[in-house]
Amino acid sequence: MRRTGRVAAIVAVAIAFASVVGRGAARNERGDDEQGRGCSNMTIRGTYGVQIQGTRPSAPGGPIESVIGVVTRTYDGRGGFTQVDNVKGAISGTVPDREGFGTYEVRPDCTAIVHAQPGPNILLEERIVIVDNGRELLSATIQPPPVMVTARGVRLHTW
To answer: pLDDT digits over 88-136, tens only?
Structure first.
């Protein structure tokens, strides 16, 4: 009888352990696991308000200028986005309500690569860090080399 009791206790512990481990691997509606580990394109689905600042060429081959701006960017959860920006250069001025688009790929480590075309003949590559389960995005433009812009985006809403 004592041996049967031990076997039953071991089986009960094994079942409880498997239940806890199974719950830890569960995924939520964004594709992240319940404990916040892992990200996917769905993690940043929604619209973000973004503030940018840095430097860029004022025109192709032109002098470098300081730049500031605000952007509304909507990620579709499948690797594409659209945006509207209002960016002001110290030399080039402002192009109001400029529409743009691009693609993105979120990695499981909650970083992302973004290829953006914010305007005609402008191609940028950004690297993003996803913060607080996608509530905030931090980014740096790394291509082309003369562009040195950082940004902070805050989720406005998701659908």
So the answer is: 999 999 999 999 999 999 999 999 999 999 999 999 999 999 999 999 9
Identify the three-state secondary structure at position 9: helix
HSE, side-chain direction, 13 A CA sphere, residue 21: 6
E strand or H helix at 6, and its extent?
helix 2-24
> Which one has a higher pLDDT value, 34 or 116?
116
Containing structural domain, residue 70: 41-157
pTM (predicted TM-score): 0.76
Return the CATH number at 100: 2.40.128.120
Q: Are 103 and 113 in contact (CB under 8 A)?
A: no
Contact 71, 84 (CB under 8 A): yes
